[in-house]
Write a structure and sequence with these properties.
It contains 17 helices and eleven strands. By secondary structure, it is an alpha/beta fold. The strands form three sheets. The chain has a five-stranded parallel β-sheet with strand order 6-7-5-10-11, with helices on both faces. Helix 2 links the parallel strand 1 and strand 2.
């Protein structure tokens, strides 16, 4: 019997062992229910072929060709990824609309003896819930922002808060980006996938407890923070981390080792700052990079580029800000800061 989703929290409480997305790899890559596995009923080319036959030739022929391809792919999945599933395994299956792809695959699973079901309305019904949560509602959570200038170990603080059992949403981790020009960490997900990660994290969090989020602009790399969360972040109280520039520079060198070890990437990123700084300053920074004087370079970037931008709106933030001064940014000092943050947030 098809399973109707009335809220995102339903997914955490449904009695299924695994969620299977049978859409094509391209559809899955753009967005999917977090935690779902992809077992395509039709791959990218097969889906295009069946669609072309349906539109240009004959719907019946398209269904016949599609059925043969689904059966062949189902056999491959049964002999591969699903080969070790036991008789008690219970999967939940979805496709784009909850139609033929998920219905056909689920029927095969049921004939084997597994208690498989489909999501009513498929991915589209799930996506409607995401849009409702992030574009049509107010985020009810008690958000607390972890703020501070570049290099104040905000991301590490979030990780330590998580280890301490606090509720955390790591937007930079979800976006595969550390939030600055130097911050790319591999390929960013699609906007829809970013929204799925955020919405599911919100759905799994207790609105009555503090939910810690790093203070960001409205974009993380190329991805937009959806409006419901962004508006909640703008109203949220802030805990502002402060540390000496030398400590921050040393922390940045540790945190951005992937950048400093790639000379071409570092040089190209520094060149991207030319619209904001005089040519002489860029040349000086390039020279520091070439000399591998990374801590001096980081200190220069903090003083000339990042802090002026951060301090520009300091007055607006101060009213809702609780500062925490960190003499050092080693893990012992950061764990002590976490205890203070938890005490402040209540």
């Amino acid at each position: 019997m098809p399973v109707a989703l009335s809220s995102l929290t339903d997914l955490a409480h449904l009695p299924f062992d695994e969620v299977i997305d049978v859409r094509s790899p391209a559809e899955f890559a753009e967005d999917h229910i977090p935690g779902a596995i992809n077992l395509p009923a039709l791959d990218n080319d097969e889906r295009a072929l069946v669609g072309t036959i349906y539109k240009q030739e004959d719907p019946f022929k398209a269904r016949k060709v599609g059925a043969a391809l689904v059966a062949r792919n189902a056999a491959r999945h049964l002999q591969g990824p699903l080969a070790d599933r036991t008789g008690g395994w219970r999967p939940l299956v979805y496709c784009w609309r909850g139609g033929q792809r998920s219905g056909s695959f689920t029927s095969i699973l049921q004939q084997i003896g597994w208690r498989a079901d489909v999501i009513q309305g498929g991915y589209k019904s799930y996506r409607r819930l995401i849009v409702q949560a992030l574009y049509g509602e107010t985020v009810p959570h008690r958000i607390v922002l972890i703020d501070g200038g570049t290099g104040t170990a905000k991301t590490r603080i979030l990780a330590l808060l998580d280890q301490a059992g606090a509720q955390v949403i790591d937007l930079e981790g979800m976006a595969n980006h550390r939030g600055s020009l130097f911050g790319a960490v591999g390929e960013q997900p699609a906007q829809k996938m970013f929204e799925s990660r955020i919405a599911m994290a919100l759905a799994q969090s207790d609105p009555a407890k503090a939910l810690f989020v790093e203070a960001e602009s409205n974009k993380v790399g190329d991805l937009l923070i959806p409006p419901a969360l962004w508006h909640a972040m703008q109203r949220a109280p802030r805990i502002a981390l402060r540390a000496p520039v030398a400590e921050r520079a040393a922390y940045l060198v540790r945190a951005y080792a992937d950048v400093t070890e790639d000379a071409n990437r570092l040089a190209a990123t520094l060149d991207a700052l030319r619209p904001y700084h005089a040519a002489k300053r860029i040349e000086d920074w390039q020279a520091l990079a070439a000399e591998r004087a990374f801590q001096a370079l980081a200190a220069e970037l903090i003083g000339a580029h990042y802090d002026p931008r951060y301090l520009k709106n300091a007055g607006e933030r101060a009213e809702h800000e609780t500062p925490i001064d960190l003499p050092a940014l080693d893990d012992d000092s950061l764990r002590a800061a976490v205890a203070r943050i938890l005490s402040i947030a209540g």
